[in-house]
Amino acid sequence: MLRSWLIYLSKAEWARRIVTHWKIAWRVASRFVAGETPEDAIRAIKALNARGICATLDHLGENVTNGDEARQATDEIIYILDEVNRTGVKSGVSIKLSQIGLLLDESLCEQNLRRILERAKSHQNFVRIDMEDSTVTEAALKMFRKMQAEGYRDTVGIVIQAYLYRSQEDIRQLMAEGARVRLCKGAYKEPPEIAFPKKAEVDANFDRLTEMMLDGAARIGLPRASECGHYPPIPAIASHDEARINFAREYAEEKGIPKDALEFQLLYGIRRDLQERLAAEGYPVRVYVPYGTQWYPYVVRRLAERPANLWFFVSNFFRG
Ligand code: FDA
C-alpha cells in the first residue's frame, strides 16, 4: 500500500514541485545521489575505485517532454563518457531511453542512442540501458537488439526485471544472443496480469533467472569482467538481497564458474558494507552512481523500496 503510494508520488508532478522546494529534501536525496555535477560524480567514483569497486554512472533524468530536452540529455551523456575517458575512472554509463526521447519519437530516440553508443565505442566503454516500466519493455528490447545488430554488441547491455512473467522467455532469448544482462527485481508498480504480485514469487523467479544467466554465460565460454572496469561479464546480479546474492554465488561455485565471470551490482548509498565485502571476496562489484538535479523520481523509488527510509526523511524534516 505504502509502496504503491510512493511509486505514484514518484511520477506526480505536483509532488515533485512541492518536495524539491523543501530545503531538507536534498539532504535526504544526497544519501542516494552522488551530487549535482559531473565533478561530484567523478569524485564519488574515484572513492569507489579506491575501494576496488567499479561504477556505472547515471545522469539522472527520465520522461523528457520535447526533442530539445532529449538532445540535451544525450549531449550530457556524451560529455560524461568523455569525462570518464579523460579521468580514467573505472566506470561505464547507464541511461534511460525515456530520457533521450523514447516516449516522444522512436526514431529520435534511436538517433540519440546511436550517437551515445558511437562515442562509447570510440572510448571502448559500455552503456547499460536501464529498464523502465512495462509500457516500454518491448520498445527497449527492440532498440537494444537493433543496436546489437548494428555493431554495438560489446558496447551495449540491457536490464531484465524478475517481477515480470515474461522475463524467463526474455532471458532465454537474450542468453542465446550472448547479450550482457543486468538482472534486478523491478522498481515500478505493475499489475498482477503481467507481474508477480508476491515478493516470494519475485525472489524465486530472480533465482531461476540467475541460473539461466549463469548457464547461458557458461555456454558461450564465460566472458570475464574487463580489467579496465568498463566491460561487464554476461550476468550482472543487481540486488542488495543477501539471499539472492548467496544463491548466485553458490550456484556459480557448484557449476565451477569463476568469480570474474559474473558481477554484483548495488546502488550508491545502499549496503556499503556488502559492496566492500563482495569486492574483498574477489567478485567484480559495480555501484550505480546517479548524479544531477533531476533526482526526484529516482529518490522516491528508493523510499518506496524500503519504507524505513521514510523515517530518515521524516527525522530530517523535523530537524529542519
Ligand atoms: P529487496 O527490495 O528485497 O531488498 C533487500 C534488502 O536490501 C532490504 O531488506 C534492505 O536491507 C536493502 N535495500 C533494498 N533497497 C533499499 C533501499 N532503497 N534503501 C535501503 N536499503 C535497501 N529497477 C528497475 O526497474 N530497472 C532498472 O534498470 C534497475 N536498475 C538497477 C540497478 C542496480 C545496480 C540495482 C542494485 C538496482 C536496480 N533497480 C532497477 C532497482 C531494483 O529493481 C530494486 O527495486 C532494488 O534493487 C531493490 O531490490 P533488492 O533486489 O535490493 O531487494
Quaternary organization? single chain
Residue windows where pLDDT falls under 50 for at least 5 positions: none
What gross morphology would you assign? globular
What's the arrangement of strands in the largest beta sheet?
A: 1-2-3-4-5-6-7-8
Mind summarizing the main beta sheet?
8 strands, parallel, barrel
Bound ligand species? dihydroflavine-adenine dinucleotide
Helices, by number, come to 13
CATH class of the largest domain, named Alpha Beta
Write down the overall mean pLDDT: 94
The number of distinct structural domains comes to 2
CATH fold node name of the largest domain: TIM Barrel
Approximate strand percentage: 5-15%
Helix/strand/pairing class, anyone?
A: alpha/beta
Total strand count, please? 8
* Helical content class: 40-55%
